[in-house]
Amino acid sequence: MWHEAEETILLSDVKKQISIKPIESIVTRANAPQDDAKEVHQQLTEAISCQKQELASIEEKQKKRVEEADNQIEEARKKWETEKQELIELARKQGFHKGYEDGKQEAYTQFEYKLQEANHIVDIAKEDYHQTLEKQSESIVEIAMATANKVLHNELKEQPDYIRTLIKDALDEVKSQPIISIVIHPDYYEEVHSYQEELQRIIGDETKLSIHADMNIQPTDCIIQYPHGQIETSVNTQLEKIREALMDYVMEDAE
């Protein structure tokens, strides 16, 4: 019985080390200007450093709680052994077998209570640890998304040609379609129309390509329409992909 109780606590003492992988490589894929890229790197580095310090503190607190639980179980076990011997001796001297059995049961019940209490402490420590990890992970992703959003929108303002990359990537997915229409905001119509021949080469001469302007879409949006559907590509789409990749990187080892 004692071996089972001790094994329960020892197994619950096993903790996974959380490693936060570098994520600046994901954000820099957005073709950020050099100054903004440095700002992204600095802010993410500081955020990761703060998170690691917080996780180290949580791990230390969890370790102390587990040690306290182990000590409580050990104390309960020793107390049980002492009381058991005392009860045996008392029963031997007085000859009251029933009193001995009742006393032994009471001591055993007290030990079981201490064991449950210790396991509860360990469970709470683990729950606190994972809740803190989740909050810190969300925090660092929000910091990354804020900086990535700034970089991508600045990139689009300073280098309008950035939308060409979005369109080319989208066309590559539907280039086998017979008819393709590119729908963009009027602000970028002239820009996109200037490299229509380049886009035509991507999809091939057998595909009919047209470009349309639409005031109802956002300046950072682009819609690629074809006979059986459409693809929406935009800065926000790129940001969402970055968010998903960041969450995967941050939470990968915590699962």
Gap between N and C termini: 32 Å
| Class inferred from helices and paired strands | alpha+beta
Mean of residue pLDDT?
69
- Biggest sheet details: 4 strands, mixed
- Inertia-based shape: rod-shaped
Strand proportion, as a percent range, falls in: 5-15%
Q: What is the alpha-carbon Rg in Å?
A: 32 Å
Number of helices: 8
Number of domains: 2
**Percentage of residues assigned to helices:** over 70%
Strand order of the largest sheet: 2-1-3-4
What does this structure look like?
The protein is α+β, with helices and mostly antiparallel strands and 255 residues long. The chain folds into two domains: 2-158; 162-232, 2-Layer Sandwich (hypothetical protein PF0899 fold). 71% of the residues lie in helices and 9% in strands. A four-stranded mixed β-sheet has the order 2-1-3-4. A hairpin with a 2-residue loop joins strand 3 and strand 4. It is rod-shaped, with a radius of gyration of 32 Å. Mean pLDDT is 69; it is low at 1-33. This is Flagellar assembly protein FliH.
Quickly list its features:
2 domains, Flagellar_FliH/T3SS_HrpE, 255 residues, hypothetical protein PF0899 fold, protein transport, coiled coil, alpha+beta, transport, disordered N terminus, 4-stranded mixed beta sheet
